[in-house]
## 1
Amino acid sequence: MNAVQRLVDQKVWEGCLMGFRYRRSAKLAPGIRLNITGRGISSVSIGKQGLHLNIGKKGTRQTISLPGSGLSYSNRSSTTPALATGLAVGGLLALLIHASRGSVPAQIALAMIGFCGLAFLISVSNAPPQSTTGDASTIKATTGISSENALSLEQRRKLDEIFHINGASR
């Protein structure tokens, strides 16, 4: 067994590599950047120097700065992961910017997105309305309660009033 194999087997290199980081940024369109780290796509930044919005895996952050001074203020508005939303918004903005500058592929992509959105809206509006009330067999099938055992809306309201007046909780 050679010396390199022994070092790999002893996992000596794990501690040495922990301090290294990889970060790249790709410009999608003016004011829209895709940030890439060693673990993949980390965020989308929207805005110019001095004011930008960063939407990524760790949430949403707004940053305002005085360019050239080194002074900035950053505020995390959400800790909910929003990378998918950021990619969608960044991609649509990039398409809009490229399409407005005369890019035919971007214009075609926007037209296709528009047609798909329109088809979705038409299919949703043509869907049969879902009934909020059902016949006795539907109620029994979905809730397991027969219609003679089910409370009417008025009876439920009276019970709610009684429980709230007496301070009891359900």
## 2
Amino acid sequence: MKTNKKTVFLLLAFSPAIVFGHGDETHEEKVKTTKSVVQKSVNTTQSALYEEINKSYLKNIKPIFEKKCFDCHADPENTPWYYTLPGIKQMMNYDMREAKEHMDMRKDFPFISHESPLNDLKSIQKIGMEGGMPPLRYILGHWDSRLTDAEKKEIISWSTRSIKLLKSEKKHK
């Protein structure tokens, strides 16, 4: 009987919350036209800056993102037991595909995205300051998925430093 209660809970918790999955933003147009922004040629100065930012990312931020973001923005190492339930699997696959189209974290910084690395950092900074990730329906099934205050502080600090680095490089051009 416990399995039935879990299934009912999950269906009730996840199904009506589809609207909250990614807010009201759509990225289809940007994805089609600018999917390869990061893959464009990068000058030597930018490359060095990206390496510096990535070094800090690997040390301080990636461990946080692995725990809190990689289930959708990368390839999850394990899927929960309810992933095999009809309907839930399709919904989760859709959410993971959508998340990766927005910001794919399977590679290190700079992420594969429909935005520039600078704009990705601004988005990450905004999420650290204002929230918005993970989506409500993910939180309903993963109570510990919200960022802690210490994690938010670390992400905001890293993104702010990184934004300043990239902006300073733009000024020197």
## 3
Amino acid sequence: MDVAGLVWQEICRPASWSAALPPRVPAGVTLAAHDDLVVHPLAVVSVRQKVVPLATAVSRVGALLPKGGTKRYHVDVETGPGVAVEPLTAHFAPAQFTELSADQKLSAPSFASLPAGVSLAPATAVEAPFDRAVRSDVVMETLNIVDLETGVRA
């Protein structure tokens, strides 16, 4: 099973992305409805996937084994200055992703809060600089992922 490919597919789904203003931050502007994700300059942008827990040794996905054996999967984000990156969690059933003995399965919690994505937020802004606000189009770059072991595009 190609776990990295499934994680990438999930991250590429528009439904995996969200944006929201932090608590107690007034919008100051109203953004028009749009088919794409429209983000306020002070919003927290989040991406979350629920394929496998991130930063956790994954030795199986249900009854299937990951291609290449046990691995940890990560969502790494490089940002410029002024952007804070924070991990996000989701509930996963650890027994579905790691080898556990029967005793461990019975004594451990059925679900655990494990890493599932990241959020990106302005590091220090608390209000919009309305005197310097400008209109800008944001361009997203699509990256082609290459399997480092085979050199083939995933």
## 4
Amino acid sequence: MSLHSLTAALLFCWLMTAVRCSSEYAALWTHDDGETGPLSAACMRCISETTTGVSVPAGGALFNISYTYWAYAFGISGSEQRDEYNACVSSPWCAARTVQHNMRLFLPECVRRSPQRAPCETALALHTFGAQAACLRELDVGVRTRLRTCLDRQVQQWLTTNVN
């Protein structure tokens, strides 16, 4: 596939975010290398931006991760590890790893159960509402709009940088 036809396909795919992209193109925007997880950097940026309201949040607000969300990702019970939690959510690497871990656990089933929704939108629902059944809940219009605006901006930045 030529770069121009791939670019056109990706643009169409992202412009039609309400419709799930074909797996051939969606694979370009999701990536699971076993270390970072199933979500692309663009999707992760937009989940962070959509949940915090800013493009580069300060301190521990990177993904608005609750103690329960963090503890579940790492199999921790009880509330005795608050220092570790605070350190993790304040670290961009650890906070992203927490989100990616939860996505690895639950996103495949959520995507399977909601195939009409774009994978990043499903990931945001899972991140916002919690595991499995809750990920089928609809995001409100304002949240969906913020996510899609961010994803559109990510595509534009990618096109500007990678297409000559």
